[in-house]
Write the structure tokens for this entry.
Amino acid sequence: EAQVTQNPRYLITVTGKKLTVTCSQNMNHEYMSWYRQDPGLGLRQIYYSMNVEVTDKGDVPEGYKVSRKEKRNFPLILESPSPNQTSLYFCASSLAGGWDEQFFGPGTRLTVL
Amino acid sequence: QKEVEQNSGPLSVPEGAIASLNCTYSDRGSQSFFWYRQYSGKSPELIMSIYSNGDKEDGRFTAQLNKASQYVSLLIRDSQPSDSATYLCAVNILSSARQLTFGSGTQLTVLP
């Protein structure tokens, strides 16, 4: 089954404790991205990657890191989480970036205390 | 001005009616336009894409694009309670061609 998976689905952590949210896709997509979704603000892009070892900032990259060492994986790293990073996070992949249908993962609900 | 704006709603329509959702965008050079549906607690899923001016129909859904006026709309005919969801407009902004910019969404409720 073609899908995007994320782990964990739910995470409660404390300020400053480094965490990683994993994202994996099995569709051989070149493009992967991370979004955060907050009430009233819609989906905002954090980082995206056009291919292995190619990443770029989205609209709200501060406080986040990403890496793309393999085509299928695109982890999101919060090295020192803060309460304002409490949000719902979605990973997405597509064949051709912003011109194409995005396939979303199930989401990760993160709470930073 | 936000790059992609939607009526925040919420929008309520009776079952069987036509629901009309609107979206405007700021970048005149935008090329790709999408409507995603998101049920509460779920991830967004694509329902329509449109790339050229005019109407595009798929079942009960019709997307309309007017590049001169910089708006894209979604009509849902014969609305069903199962259509109750948040509808997200997404636009591939030319200035950031690799990115997709989303509106904040319109919450639709179809009343039985």
Notes: Residues 38 and 47 of chain A are 16 Å apart (CA to CA). Chain A has a mean pLDDT of 94. Chain A touches chain B through 25 residues (CB under 8 Å).
